Here is the input.
Amino acid sequence: MTDGFFEVVARQRACRAFDPDREVGDDLVERVLDAARFAPSAENTQPWVFIVVHDAERRARLTDLMARLWAAAPDRGMDEALHADVGAAFGGGFATAPVWIVVGADDERAPRPEQSSSIYPAVQNLLLAATALGLGSAMTTIASYDPAEVRAIAGLPESVRPYAMVPLGWPAKPLGPPRRRPVAEIAHREAFGESW
Amino acid sequence: MTDGFFEVVARQRACRAFDPDREVGDDLVERVLDAARFAPSAENTQPWVFIVVHDAERRARLTDLMARLWAAAPDRGMDEALHADVGAAFGGGFATAPVWIVVGADDERAPRPEQSSSIYPAVQNLLLAATALGLGSAMTTIASYDPAEVRAIAGLPESVRPYAMVPLGWPAKPLGPPRRRPVAEIAHREAFGESW
Here is the structure.
């Protein structure tokens, strides 16, 4: 299932529960990684590192870590329904993903202040590619608040800082359309506050 | 010019010189902003702010700021040909773009540590959408090193932090394919260092 660019963009949505019995083939993982590498990066340093985790024990350590960090996170007045959805994901939904991709940046390729503007575009390419292929995925960053533990799980050297962890799998149920603010609310003409 | 998702992804490349006589219609700007808003964001906070700058004086202030910051930046051993290209862009190529989009994040919607993982995916959607439409664009972040000056140029309140500035226009010449590392160099199986 591959279709037009704008259709893929408008369909992308966080998937928080996966079909635990359906694997994701290496050919599909390769396609999402191939998309990721085309992202722009600061001075074309391409500082990204992708660890593709299938191993059940490593995946469990990763999702347990995320569950612990979520449980300890302060409630910031998140929308109640969304809070319940995200809580269910960290509480077990994400653990159904057959593959996790840990995305990091290598300090030896790009300095810290320039990493996020390179890494997150690559992750976005990855998420969009998954969507184009009919796979479920999600941007999660919570585990990066404990980089030492992520390094231990994914065998990352000290020079690689984890930024995002993306579950990949087949959605347990069809995903509805994303809920987003309209352009008129987010765009301004010439200066902030001037309506677009 | 709109085509398949994977073709658009593989074609995206930084454009550093634009046709100064060819405007970008509001309909096209609207389409790239429409794509941007579908990005994921931390807890769906959608903290993005887009300032669409056409005004020649504001654009000149922005590209002058970028030129000054580039001239003052330390040389980090960038590839020589790329260094020359980027220098030419900051030295005048970017000034040929008829539109600049300043992208910021609003502290009132999302806390600082969670902004970059929301903003850069939205910028990436914007860049990809521009590519899909045949427009040239580029991710630039250098001006964000002087947030006060960007705030002054784009009329941003203190609560909005600038993250990226994207030129939009028609490429002065066709863009070649991007140069990227192969998947085998950036992907690892189960743990860092294990070949994919």
